[in-house]
Amino acid sequence: MAKDFFTAGWTIRDLITALDSLPDGRAHGQIVDGQWVPYSGADGISAARLGHWVNWRLNAWRDNGTVVESPTQTRIRRAVAAKNQRQAQQPARDEERQRNPTEMATPEGQSAKQACLDQFRANSVRNRNLRRRR
Fold this sequence. Notes:
By secondary structure, this protein is mainly alpha-helical. It folds into two domains: 3-68, no CATH class; 75-133, no CATH class. The chain has five helices and four strands; from the N terminus they run ααββαββαα. The chain has helices at 3-7, 12-20, 47-59, 71-104, 107-133, and strands spanning 29-32, 35-38, 62-63, 66-67. The strands form two sheets. It has a two-stranded antiparallel ribbon. A two-stranded antiparallel sheet has the order 3-4. It is elongated and about 80 Å long. The protein starts with a helix and ends with a helix. The model has no long low-confidence stretch (mean pLDDT 88). Residues 79-134 are annotated as: Disordered.
């Protein structure tokens, strides 16, 4: 029943997620009066029909018979992509860090720095006064 899912690298947690929800994240359900109504669907299913119910739920996670990416695989892929993007952006951030002290040494940079410090002080005084009132 789930052999092709395990072959595709799915975990037990992924199968539980697939039985509870659709690939788009919605809970399994049906449309009632034009609105999506989630339901578990397992309530009252006889043991003889349980295999059919599991296959029906898992079929939402197949594309033309091929198992799609599991929720865990999706999270891992997205995390790797985000890490790669951060690494690609790192040289620009490093350059900004090197450029920032030079810019802050100018009179314009000093006035911008002072404006930020004044804003921080004003906010901290306001927050302190709000805490005292409570």
